[in-house]
Amino acid sequence: MALTMTAKRRLVTTALLAPASVWLFVFLVLPFIAMVIFSVGERGPAGGYQAAFTFAQYANLPARAAAYWNTLLLAPVGAFFCLVVAYPTAYYLAVKASPRHRLLLVSLVVVPFWTSLLVRTYAWMYILGSRGIPNLLDMIGIADVRLLNTPGAVLLGIVYGYLPLMIMPIYVSLEKLDRRLLEASADLGAKPVSTFFSVTLPLSLPGVMTGVALVTILLLGEYLIPQLLGGGKVFFIGNALVDLFLQSRNWPFGSAIAVTLVAIVVVVLMVAMRIAWRISGTRQVDLI
Amino acid sequence: MISAPTNDIEFRSVTKRYGAVTAVSDINLTVPKGAFVALLGPSGCGKTTCLRMIGGFEQPSEGEVLIAGKVANGVPAYRRPVNMVFQQYALFPHFDVEKNVAYGLKQLRPKLPVAEISRRVGEALEMVRLSGFAKRRIHEMSGGQQQRVALARALVNKPSVLLLDEPLAALDKKLRTAMQIELQTLQRDLGITFVLVTHDQEEALSMSDLVCVMSAGRIRQLATPQEVYDRPADLFVADFVGKTNRFDGTLEAGGTVRLGNGAALPVSRKDLAPGAVTVALRPEAIRLSRGTGNAATLEGTVTHRIFLGSAAEYSIAIDGLGDMLVTAERQTQNDLVAPGERVAISFDPGTAHIFPA
Hints:
The structure holds 2 protein chains of 2 kinds.
Chain A: H1 5-39, E1 42-43, E2 49-50, H2 56-59, H3 65-96, H4 99-110, H5 117-128, H6 133-139, H7 151-175, H8 179-187, H9 192-220, H10 224-229, H11 237-247, H12 251-280
Antiparallel strand pairs in A: 1-2
Chain B: E1 7-18, E2 21-32, E3 36-40, H1 47-55, E4 62-67, E5 70-71, E6 82-85, H2 97-106, H3 114-127, H4 143-155, E7 161-165, H5 173-190, E8 193-198, H6 201-207, E9 210-215, E10 218-223, H7 225-230, H8 235-240, E11 245-252, E12 256-259, E13 264-266, E14 275-281, E15 286-290, E16 298-307, E17 311-318, E18 322-329, E19 342-347, E20 353-356
Parallel strand pairs in B: 3-8, 3-9, 6-7, 7-8
Antiparallel strand pairs in B: 1-2, 1-4, 4-5, 9-10, 11-12, 11-14, 12-13, 14-20, 15-19, 16-17, 16-19, 17-18
């Protein structure tokens, strides 16, 4: 049986996309539909879900305003601090480091990923806890410093945990930056600082946007770091969801919060992409 | 009174090494003010390194590079009165045409007034005939247009020297010829020194006043295009510039060269000592006639013919010697020789280049 070329190509495309499509449908689309249905339902007498059609859960969202506030504040702020630390690092790795050492240095950035974030966050708990830095400060006469279970501790944990995710996309965009553009800039009389701000930075923005979007989106669903370093005092949406689904078994309310979160993520992502396109002047921005 | 320097660029015993590799070795070169110089050579001959040392992107390991009479060693690229048209143009993809061209002007201190910048950008775009394209993005421009944007961007600061790194390599043949003429006109009108790097001998010969043939980090010949072609300094130049037939032979007293097949050809080099030599002959310097010749000719059989319209290119198997390329202008409509025919070839003694082997 002879297939035409187009038919054959279509078959190959379908075959290549099938596993990912099935996976996404079963584990993303279906659960999301279920979540949307739950979110307009009611909590059953013994918890869980009871069929209904009401927006009562959405009307009740302000009850978790603190979680939204913490998440929507600390996610972008965390991403921002990540960026501040990551950009110079990525710049050094991509531009200044000698090619011989580059691979080693880049792998040093990635290596911490090989150990569990849980273990590394526990280490921070110890460092920030009363037997860690506060203890040392106490010895030199600065008493009663509280580090653990503060927003600052959560922020620190966030920057520490998500740094590689910010460094890598920026590194990639700086690494593929055409060096001749920098030479052209210098040739036209631009001093190095001027070249950085007029050429290097704008052309690395796609990487910056990717990193910021990646870290922000993951932070919006963060659970572990606020739990361990925030001690339940810095409460994220992720923590609220765990409570609602596992403790109070209020599935409809939890679903409403989750759906709202997804909506926020989608909007953030779309705006970020638009901005990246606008600035870099191309449509070839690989956002995630 | 100090006279103004008459040379825009000067290399004094310049050597450039990368680790163990010597890219440029002990080069001396002067480029007169207002000249159009082509650095010509195969890839890896050091021509681009020389250009980059003028631009300030590389520093010589030894020797001095002078720009407008001043030693430029250690002077960063952004302080040099030279501008470059980069290979593949290196236009800023995030700026439109206007911003690309204005880039150099915006770096000037004290700052130029905005009106002055836009006036000069307009002039530069007009010069390269891109007036209506100011707001276009770079990726919306064709290769030829990008090339002209690059030219405008490099010329807008009125450099004393314009450097061109294989500027026409990315263009198709027709556009290339048009740009060659445009570049030449531009250079004459502006009176700016142009230094062009190319591996394309046709480009070098057609555009420049001076050709600097390089190989293996050294200058082989610096002369006018005509001189380089007609009187190549050595076998490398003869081979690299234009087409050349080469034969090994022995120069004998009395001004004849005895070739491998025993033929003795008269040549006009009385200055060389007798001994082993290589004879180089341009394909168009050779005369072709049907049938057999005489003592001063070579004979052979035509193996291939490439018809070029106004001329024909023949490949001829010379008896006992090997293949020879001959270009024959057509005089009449029936003077084409067919493959398989026997021919005799001859040449004026003065057109053969003799190099000691």
